[in-house]
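Thread: Zinc finger PHD-type domain-containing protein, structure

OP (GT): Posting the sequence first so everyone is looking at the same thing. Length is 246 residues per the record. Can we get the structure tokens written out before standup tomorrow? I want them in the notebook alongside the other entries.
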Amino acid sequence: MSETCCCGCQTKLEEAKSIMCFFCKKYFLNSCVGLTVTDLKSIKTKRGLTWCCENCDNIGKEIIEMKSLITTLTKEVASLKNEKTNLPNLNNAIVEDIIQEINDREARKTNVLIFNIDETEMENRQDRINGEKTKIEEVFAALPIEINMNTKKFYRLGKFNNQAPKTRPIKVEINNVNIVQNILRSSRNLKNHESLKNIVIAADKTKRQQTHYKELKAELNNRISSGESNLTIKYRNGVPVIISEN
């Protein structure tokens, strides 16, 4: 075992409690990736049984999602061809659109968004930053994970409007996809803290992902209004879909 620290939480590795990702060959502590010691023994002793980290698993899901996106855009191209629309530069534009979307998703997957942290009224900019940093540290302290905010960049999204004050979300650049996934999974713990129960932590999605989810949510509401029941939105391979819970 070449690494000395877990790639997820940076804690010192122990041979009996460590596992290597089959794809990226990085090591993780079982407690960091949600595996029991029994799970580790089963994976290590059973022939043909492998394990991959959440980052590698997410890459696989993103590939599936990109294939879905490419299929959708290909159908749009076919439709435009049938209409004999100006096509010389269309294919290049679609390729650029896909590449830009992939890059945007890649850049965002190591960020989290924190909602409902009150805007500070301090006039001094540095005092406002320090106040918000303290609040973010309080939020993360309620989760079973250690995060050093002295090394993280964070900022409010959008411009503050004095005429129509609205609490802006805060983007925090974690720069580690495994820690991001741990934060998102454990964020429900905030409900157990009276002062933090209204705080919401979410993944940093692209505009296209946000639009797709809103359209899916509208479709779900329409179908429920039309009499369908037991419907909900679930993520399959990283893509939100409407399914029946029956």
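GT: Both are above now. Quick notes for whoever picks this up: The domain at 1-52 is CATH 3.30.40.10 (Herpes Virus-1). The mean pLDDT is 85.
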